[in-house]
Amino acid sequence: MTTTEFRGWYDRGYLPHFDTDKYPQMLTYRLADSLPRQAVQQILRETDDDPERRARFEKLLDNGHGSCVLKQRGCAEIVIENLNFHDGSLYRLLDWVVMPNHVHALYDRPTVSMDQLVGSWKSYTSNQIKKRLGTFGDGERLWKAGFHDRYVRDEHHLCNMQGYLFFNPVKAGLVDNPFDWPFSSVHDHGEHRDSIERWWRRWKERFWEARQSRK
């Protein structure tokens, strides 16, 4: 049996990666047309601070640029089925949300590197979504190369990440309640719906304040 070598910290492009099987991870990957090139270049020129870059990229993604084909139920379901298919073999899937132009997936106990994992996700879903849409030319890319990753430091951080996933559709202005967005693992937590909604009512002002401060 081949043993996977996890790379730890490494740099590729404009954000560092931390490839590990020791901590849960949240990976974000996006459609090729999801961010305007000029806006990305401006962010890269204006800051080299990783947290600030992440925040500004996330805000751009939430603005809903590009084709947003993942808003179509059939396309979103291809991504969701693929995430669940590998649960228990390549990783343990914790939570996820499919947004109109990007995907967040939270997992732990990986058996392959992040590069291999994201490559697998993109390869299969690209083929299936292109077949479904029938609008992509030969060689036209569905997914943007690369990904963003964030490792979980502790239980409190894990809860914050889950909250981010659950409330991302609300923060992006797509729905008023996280349970109204159909493409999210929040529906797997129905028994905790009351507590999740109470958490949102308590903390939502901080979400809006953070959003307004980055406009």
- Quaternary organization: single chain
Total strands: 6
Q: What portion of the residues fall into strands of 2 or more residues?
A: 15-25%
**Main β-sheet, in a few words?**
4 strands, antiparallel
Silhouette: globular
Note poorly predicted spans: 210-215
Which structural class is indicated by helix and strand composition?
A: alpha+beta
| Residue share in helix | 40-55%
Question: In sequence order, what are the helices and strands, one letter per element?
Answer: EEEHHHEEHEHH
CATH-defined topology of the domain at 8-153: Alpha-Beta Plaits
Count of alpha and pi helical runs: 6
CATH class division of the domain at 8-153:
Alpha Beta
What's the pLDDT, averaged over the residues? 85
- The end-to-end distance, rounded to whole angstroms, is 50 Å
